[in-house]
Amino acid sequence: MNAFADKPWLSAYAEGVPATIVPPTGSLVDMMDATVKTYTSAVALDFFGATTSYSLLGEQISRVANGLAKLGVKAGDRVALVLPNCPQHIVAFYAVLRLGAIVVEHNPLYTPRELRHQFEDHGARVAIVWDKVVDTVLAFPKDIAVRATVSVDVTRAMPFGKRVALRLPIPKARTARAALTSSTLSKGAISWDTLVTSRALRRSHPRPAVTDIAVLQYTSGTTGSPKGAILTHNNLYSNALQGAAWVPGLQPGKEVFYAVLPMFHAYGLTLCLTFAMSMGARLVLFPKFDPGLVLDAARTTPPTFLPAVPPIYDRLERAAAERKVSLTGIRFAISGAMNLPVATVQRWEAATGGLLVEGYGMTETSPVAAGNPIGPSRRPGTVGVPFPSTEIRVTDPDDPSVDRGFDEEGELLVRGPQVFAGYWNRSDETAAVLLADGWLRTGDIVRVSADGFITIVDRMKELIITGGFNVAPSEVEEALLAYPSVADVAVVGIPHESGGEVVTAAVVLVPGAVLDAPALRQHCRGLLSAYKVPRTIVQVDELPHSLIGKVLRRQVREQLTRTAG
User: pTM for the whole thing?
Assistant: First the structure.
């Protein structure tokens, strides 16, 4: 029996947050149309100071949709987007959806091999690509058969003065220009301008239904190699509505969201491409996270809502203190994708006067499934409670039909309107994680308190087995990060000849610090059981991170295993 069926967490919801959302009846296209109609003259996009109103954004979406239709894009087709954060990304996203086609998001910094694998999998015939990587797509073999590649120069969306500055014959300008654009149109590519100068799409053109597929988002999932998670209009629209319901005090049409997270990632996609747009917010776009660029923007257009990850909050708070830039006015900050240290929360809230809360999710939940309440009932150190219209179970990791109760460790299962429809062309892998009754196996080991707060123990595949005990890397990492000289850390299990694993920590020290392994172990012994204390501590210059700042433990483990061998 599901011990959590009565939803004890509802009493922890902030005042005014509903137990359920009203299900969307339209698609993301309908959502955007409603926003354009309601906030016609309001600023939708801000890119280095160049602004786009919602009225102009709606017109550009219609024109690009017509341009794509002329290229042969029709309902159900996949269209690949290989773009950084820029105005063209938002326009392309909604233009593809307007035709009933499917957006496939890609990391533009992927290697040619990584991009080719994804294109082979989804079979898109049209790609809208950052001009710096157009040649990579054009060089794909003929069996991939991309018939049209649209080249996007992101600098075209910048203010005229900044574009002129990028052309100055000085090293700094050349370096900045090279980071943003290739400056030339590759032979065989179509210019983005060709699409955006098309006529507006006929309003009678067929529109997508709420149940249609909107996005293929590539993820490693709970196991295995990258695969395309199928996210419907209902999945993504529902998650945007859940997010809006979760944050009391939001002012539609007046909020300023900062897009420092890449929008080709599920977290950035939902918080910026859908949630912010549904609120009629001003979305300030950054091609990549750079504390200097963010603080420059904050001087003229301060953010009110900042979704990010812990390393970004830490770096931004330190940079703001050094440059004496005020962060006050950021009322809401939502952290995800990795563990949020309590120390980060304390420093951020002292600097901003706003709230920083942790959420939980994965690509397969569009991505948010739970969050800390935006108010006094929040509980740092946990990922909060399930979102409105979301159910959870905790089960035996080896048998999801066996339920666990409060304060018992087990695998978290989630069910709700944001749960994905499966993996693209991978029925077996879909069946392994998406149960027949709609429950998603997350692959995360958790404990749930009697009042419904979820504590992540760790990923099942990253648990360290030592002496017959399970060790959660995140728990050991948080202990090590509390030591003053530790700037960054990854904890992994290194195979031992006994058959178990040795708890091993790779640490990055603050500048000027010297590794004192015995002192670090002594510090950990005051916070952790003896079997969790790292037996091996290795100093490294840096750790590998994903583009959203998450430490790549698998790479750390592989590197340390090679070194030990």
Answer: 0.85
DSSP-assigned states of every residue in 314-364:
HHHHHHHHHHT---TT--EEEE-SS---HHHHHHHHHHHSSEEEEEEE-GG
Q: Exposure pattern of 104-122 as b/e (b: 16+ CB <10 Å)?
A: bbbbbbbeeeebbebbebb
Bridge-based pairing state of the strands 440-448 and 410-415: antiparallel
Residue 509: domain span = 463-564
Q: Please say whether the dihedral angle defined by the alpha carbons of residues 435, 439, 443 and 446, taken in this order, is positive or negative.
A: negative
528 Cβ partners below 8 Å, 6+ apart?
475, 476, 479
Distances (CA, A) of 92 to 22, 60, 97: 28, 9, 9
Structure tokens of 444?
A: 């995360």
Cβ neighbours for 535, distance < 8 A, ≥ 6 positions apart: 502, 503, 504
Cα–Cα–Cα angle for 372, 377, 383, rounded to 5 degrees? 25
Rounded-to-integer distance, Cα 31 and Cα 267, Å: 19
pLDDT at position 222 is 47
We report the CATH number of the domain holding residue 478 as 3.30.300.30
pLDDT, one tens digit per residue, over 18-55 is 999 999 999 999 999 999 999 999 999 999 999 999 99
Looking at the domain assignment, is residue 148 inside a domain? yes
For residue 3, being part of any structural domain is answered with no
CB 104 within 8 A of CB 118: yes
Count of domains for the chain: 2
Phi, psi of 484 (to 5 degrees): -55, -30
